[in-house]
Structure formats: C-alpha cells, structure tokens
Amino acid sequence: MNKFDGQVAVITGGASGIGLAVAEALAKEGAAIAILDVNAASISDALATLSLPVERARGYTVDVTCEDEVLDAFSQIDATFGRLDILVGAAGIIGRGSLEETESEQWRRVLDVDLSGIYMTARAALPALKRAGGGAIVNIASIAGIRAVSPQVNVAYAAAKGGVISLTEQMAAELAAYGIRVNAVSPGFVETPMSREQRSIGAHHGWTRRIPLRRYAQPSEIAEVCLFLASSQASYVTGTNLVVDGGLTVVLTSDTIPALAVEANP
C-alpha cells in the first residue's frame, strides 16, 4: 500500500522545479494530483511527465495572486476529486538586485506571488481540508527568510520568504484545532529553472565551495522532505520550519556575504 493512497494533493507552482518534483513524488505514493500553475504549456508538460490517468491528475492555469482564479480552481478541484488532504505552496518567483535597484513594482510583485499566494491558496483550501477532518499544508520558504544570501536574491524575496515562515507559524496555531498541520520547508540552493541563469554564468561556484555538502540540492531531495511533513510520519509536527540547505546556514557568517558578492560580480 502506498503512503498517500486515496488522498488528494494540490501543488501550486507544480509545473516545474520543486513543485513538479513534489507532484511526482506524491503521485508515486498514490496521491491524486491537482497542479496549479500560471504557465499553461508547462502544466501540459508536467501532466505528461506524471503520466497518470485523468481521474488522478488535473492541471489548472492559475495566477495565485488572483483571488477569483484561485477560488475557481479550488471549486473545480472539489467538484472533480471530492476532497482535499494536502496543499503544497510552491509557487514563487525570484527577485534579484540591490535595495536601490529594487523598484516598488518588483517589490509588490514578489511579495504578491511568494507570500500573498500562500495566504490566498491556503484560505481557499481550508473548507475542503476541514471537511476532510484534517490534513497537511506545506509551504516552500527559503533560507533567504532567515539569513542574508545577497547577491543571489533581493530584499523583496527575503522579506517574502521570511513572511512565509511567520505565516506558517500563525496558520499552524490557528488550524491545529481542525487537525490541519502547517509546516514550512526552507531550501538552500537547488538546481531548478529559477537558479539556472545564475548557474549558467558561474555565480554558484562561490556558494558551492561554502556549502558543507559541496553541491546544490536536487528538487527531488526537497520533495522528499515535503512528503515527510505531509505524511502521517509527521503527525505530531506542526508550526516548524525545516531547513534543507546542505549545512549552509550552519557555517554562513557575516564575512561570507561581501566575499561572495565580489566573486559573483567579478
């Protein structure tokens, strides 16, 4: 028997990167999958990758910052699957550049997607999770929410991910009465499409030398942690932020950032 047989999981940002890896891992363990993503073409590719019958996998083109689109998608998911057990909030965009370079439009957009999107989808999922008698929400945060990792990300991204961690704690406190556990995962550097551009210009080498495990994570490694938090193995775990960074935050110091800034911008 698979770990998630009979359960339904919604993954936002599920068409690529960590979200897709989570969808694949949950599907292998028996869950029915609903992918929410802003990119329709990527959703089609993701569903082809999952290779599941239509009754076990659906995709919905959704901008997680648009409340009407989010509510409509969850209404369709409820009508199609009849229940919801797991929500993984993996939709996100990156922000780069200094404080001076971060204009208000970028600030608002990053916070809207990376933080407000978590709020929006969790709120929309709540009725179905309550009706199921409980469930699990796993939010993808980042080590940028707890430590400075400039110049790889900017102030908007750091603020958004710090907000995700705080939001996770607040949601966990509120929703425990309904049997809904809420946790966050804070990855370090991961080989995803989001980091591809920086890796292509060699900006990752300085970080790799400082990560104790000496490499970036694979999306599947982050997915396995998400599955643990969504599973009954974590039945007494809620309100936590699980850091998955190859040991980077253990050794990261205030002296590291200026040195990396020079290496990343020769």
TrEMBL record:
Which InterPro entries does the UniProt record give? Answer: NAD(P)-bd_dom_sf (IPR036291), Sc_DH/Rdtase_CS (IPR020904), SDR_fam (IPR002347)
The alphabetical list of record keywords is: Oxidoreductase
Q: Give yes or no: UniProt keyword Lipid metabolism.
A: no
Record keywords: Secreted included? no
* Superkingdom assignment: Bacteria
The entry's family comment says: Belongs to the short-chain dehydrogenases/reductases (SDR) family.
Q: Which protein are we looking at?
A: SDR family oxidoreductase
Annotated source species: Hoeflea algicola
